Amino acid sequence: MTFSLSTPADRHIAAERQPDPIRITPDGRTIIYIGRGSRTGTHVLYRRELTDLDPTAIPGTEDAGAPFPAPDGGAVGFFRGGRLYRVQLSGGEPTLVADSANGGRSEDGATMGGSISSPGNA
Questions:
Q1: What is the CATH number of the domain that holds 69?
Q2: What average pLDDT values come out for the chain (122 residues) when binned by 10 residues?
Q3: What CA–CA distances, in Å, run from 8 to 5, 11, 120?
Q4: 57 occurs within a structural domain
Q5: Is residue 5 assigned to a domain?
Q6: Residue 18: partners with Cβ closer than 8 Å, 6 or more residues away
Q7: Total domains, the chain
Q8: 2 assigned to some structural domain
Q9: Which of 32, 36, 55, 94 is the most exposed place for a label (fewest CB within 10 A)?
Q10: H/E element holding 96?
């Protein structure tokens, strides 16, 4: 399958934040990515349903890194400032889940319903 993802001119995919800044929820319906506003330069997580053309910023995710979707696709985890957070895609403020020993380098989404691992700490 081939898929093209274009972003609005003022919101670029922030590939410099991690090698894989784009994630797809397990149900395949939502794309989560780190975007950088060209006007503000702030990194924020965006979500885009495959049925929509425009992405939506996920509130409270400024300076987020290493996003990963929950297994049920209803939430996204991310790292910020050496801490792990979780936010519901339906809305609400991010919740602190844990301090991160590895500074948020990498993970596998299982903690959103299982466990988290990092190549440096596995």
A1: 2.120.10.30
A2: 57 58 88 78 86 88 90 92 93 90 49 41 36
A3: 10, 5, 35
A4: yes
A5: no
A6: 34, 65, 66
A7: 1
A8: no
A9: 36
A10: strand 95-99
Contact between 90 and 73 (Cβ < 8 Å): no
Phi and psi dihedrals of 113, rounded to 5?
Answer: -175, 15
One-letter identity of residue 60: G
Domain extent for 77: 11-111
Say if 77 falls within a structural domain: yes
Cα–Cα distance measured from residue 56 to residue 86, given in angstroms and rounded to the nearest whole number: 17
- The helix (run of H) or strand (run of E) holding residue 105 is none
Distances (CA, A) of 121 to 22, 48, 65, 74: 23, 31, 18, 27
